[in-house]
Amino acid sequence: MRRVAVQLAVPVALGLVIGLVLAFQAGSSNSGIQQVPLGTLVTPTPTPSVPGTTLTDNVDCDIIVPANPLTARGLATPYQLTGPHGMSPAESGCQMSNGAKVGAFVQATILDPATGALSVYDPLVVTQGIRPAVLPTVPRIPADAVVTIDFGFNGKDLVQVGATPATLADANCVNGQAGSVFGQVSFCNGTNFFSAVRTAERKGLLKVPSPGTSDKIVSSGGALGTGQVCPVTRNFEVADQSSVNNVTTEYLLNRLTGQTAQDTTSNAGNIAGATLLFSRSDNTLLDQFLDPILGCTPFQAPDLANNDQPASSQALDEILADAYQPKIAALAPENDEMLRSGQGQFDAAKTDVYREELGQAPVSAATDKSSSPAMYCQNLVDIQTPFLAANRALLATGQSPVTAVGDNLLTFMADELNVSFTNLGCQRFGLTNPVTVTRNGAGAAVAATFDAAVQTAAGSQAGG
């Protein structure tokens, strides 16, 4: 999903105001910041920037990962957002109060290997030096729990920095490759988590529910009411330039103080005038916008921070997609900008690192049949275009995640497909952009036409 730094304010339940935020994708640098104790409340105020960087143009930040992040106490210890290269939050603009531009989000999914039970916990991110609005409670998890932690960012490059020299290595944290970070996303312990999930599935301890069917979905052939299978993240019908990208975490923000808190029923009722911040992601698009309008329900598990209320997560989406993977599967493609090398070249090794953290199969002749650079483009054009065209009436009734991008769900997705075609370089494979978007004076998509003619990518037989 293409990211644009933008924020909209619209009324929602509990009197909250949603800060809808998007951001860009790419890769960058590191620094040696160490964790410091959370200080007394400091109202965030901009200070003069350091040479070469201004508060208006910086979109790179560091996030300080607390010690022992895979433990219950580590999950409850706030992560700290701060500036890159030793810059302070105020100098760099890396503040959660600036969440529309550089907000950071963390999400944990937890497996009990003895029972196969899954749960979700969203660790809190605070601006370095500012205490939480409400201190997170320590979740109760099994002593042998297997935890994966996913990171999301509304800026360009978010670089993990360990609270201790051993923090990142001990927690199997992955930020990309040396000199080439993923950018907006990173992980801790994903490989071990998905291995444990598959073991629990083989033992019969974990039974992943079906994604279900819906009579609202119109097939590409025009059939309605035939019980179409609900899409998962690996369906090309709902993919864009990356089949999975970013978390579904939400935080409450007090804009007057810069304090953040976990988004729980209790916190929402006790923090007056809070703003709801969340990472705009492919997963959020599917779970919170597409599924409801299609009559589908995402895979959910108890939220340990919110009285076990059901919640989705990036890892849960991938567990569902792996268990019910479509025949033509959209796996993270090498031509996604964040998976390319530091020189912008296709990088199978970097792509494999990313896929492994999400339980996806590595680059191979088998996966290239659907997700080589050429075939990913071809399938995006040939599968998503007729899906959007066939369901245009239904999708046009859906809420747009960001009205500054599209005025309804259909125009938003049409714009995403249009831009993804360009960002992936699909024209290099002899393909033609299948979407024509009409924009208003503010640049938002307000209408779209689709050319659903079947196209064949040059080089597709060889995997691109």
Q: What is the domain total for the residues?
A: 2
Distance between the termini: 22 Å
Structure annotation, total helices = 13
Q: What fraction of the residues are assigned to beta strands by DSSP?
A: 15-25%
Report on the biggest sheet. Answer: 5 strands, antiparallel
The coarse silhouette is: globular
Helix content: 10-25%
- The secondary-structure class comes to alpha+beta
E-strand count? 21
Return residue spans where pLDDT drops below 50 for at least 5 consecutive residues. 1-53
Features:
disordered N terminus; single chain; 13 helices; 24% helix; alpha+beta; 4-stranded mixed sheet
How would you describe this structure to a colleague?
The longest helix is centred in the C-terminal third of the chain and has 18 residues, at 373-390. Helix 10 (365-371) packs parallel to helix 11 and helix 11 runs antiparallel to helix 13 (409-423). The strands form 7 sheets. A 5-stranded antiparallel β-sheet has the order 5-4-7-12-9. Strands 1-17-15-16 form a 4-stranded mixed β-sheet. It folds into 2 domains: 13-211 and 241-323, no CATH class; 374-464, no CATH class. It starts with 16 loop residues before the first strand and ends in a 14-residue tail after the last strand. With 464 residues, it is of the alpha+beta class. The chain has helices at residues 72-76, 89-92, 99-102, 167-170, 190-202, 265-270, 282-294, 314-323, 348-357, 365-371, 373-390, 392-395, 409-423; strands at 17-21, 60-65, 79-82, 104-111, 118-121, 125-127, 146-153, 157-162, 173-174, 176-177, 180-181, 186-188, 213-214, 228-229, 250-254, 259-262, 275-279, 301-303, 309-311, 435-439, 445-450. It has 13 helices and 21 strands. It is globular.
